[in-house]
Specification:
Blueprint: H1 2-17, H2 19-40, H3 44-64, H4 69-77, H5 79-84, H6 90-119, H7 127-151, H8 158-186, H9 191-220
Helix pairs in contact: 1-6, 2-3, 2-6, 3-6, 3-7, 3-8, 6-7, 6-9, 7-8, 7-9, 8-9
Length: about 220
């Protein structure tokens, strides 16, 4: 746990020191959502009907922007080789990086979503489900994204490859996240959708770090 906390603090300092990446994620999220009312018109009923899909789709796309930075800086300056020979398991180090990535991208997206939902005239009954759904689903995005980032490490056009790899795996998160918000609007039970989001994150937690660790070891050979 001490090694995990040390690595987490290190990655948070690096991420916050390069604040442009986190700011670009949030800026993309805001601007992409704003484009929909401009393109579709300011009709409140129309925007409210598609608000859940807009927010989740733009959040997924925004999360993609920073995935290639999870390991790239350490790979380029040689720090990744030093981390690989540390006593702490590589899987533990990957978890620390994933948590740092979520804290600077997924958490801000979750906190910003209600403000944008207000602009899209989302039904107030769905706000709690939106926030909780993103809090449960966005960690899965970071975990899956870390796996994709490790598989494309050192490749040309790595950002494009990551998108092709992880977007199909993001679809279940998109489906259940959107369905949960729509169920809340319709007055239907939202617990099944939230539990499925939690299950996706719980499944990704033990599966993605070992896969990412194996890919990183291969990249370092």
């Amino acid at each position: 746990m001490t090694a995990f906390a040390t690595l987490l603090r290190r990655d948070l300092r690096l991420a916050l020191g390069q604040g442009g990446d986190a700011a670009s994620v949030l800026a993309f999220f805001v601007l992409a959502v704003i484009l929909f009312p401009l393109g579709l018109g300011p009709e409140p009923l129309l925007l409210a009907r598609i608000a859940a899909g807009i927010l989740w789709v733009t959040a997924l796309l925004a999360a993609l922007l920073s995935l290639d930075q999870i390991f790239l800086a350490d790979y380029q300056d040689g720090s990744l080789e030093a981390l690989a020979v540390m006593p702490a398991a590589l899987e533990t180090q990957i978890l620390a990086k994933v948590l740092a990535h979520w804290l600077v991208t997924g958490l801000p997206l979750t906190l910003l979503a209600p403000l944008l939902a207000f602009m899209l005239h989302l039904d107030h009954a769905a706000y709690g489900t939106l926030i909780l759904g993103m809090a449960l689903g966005t960690p899965a995005l970071s975990l899956i994204g870390a796996m994709g980032a490790s598989l494309t490490l050192g490749a040309r056009r790595g950002g494009v490859l990551i998108s092709l790899l992880v977007l199909p795996l993001y679809i279940p998160v998109l489906i259940f996240g959107t369905a949960g918000v729509e169920a809340a609007i319709a007055g239907l039970p939202v617990r099944p959708h939230l539990l499925l989001l939690a299950a996706l994150t719980a499944a990704a937690l033990p599966l993605c770090p070992p896969a990412a660790a194996a890919a990183l070891r291969q990249a370092l050979e």
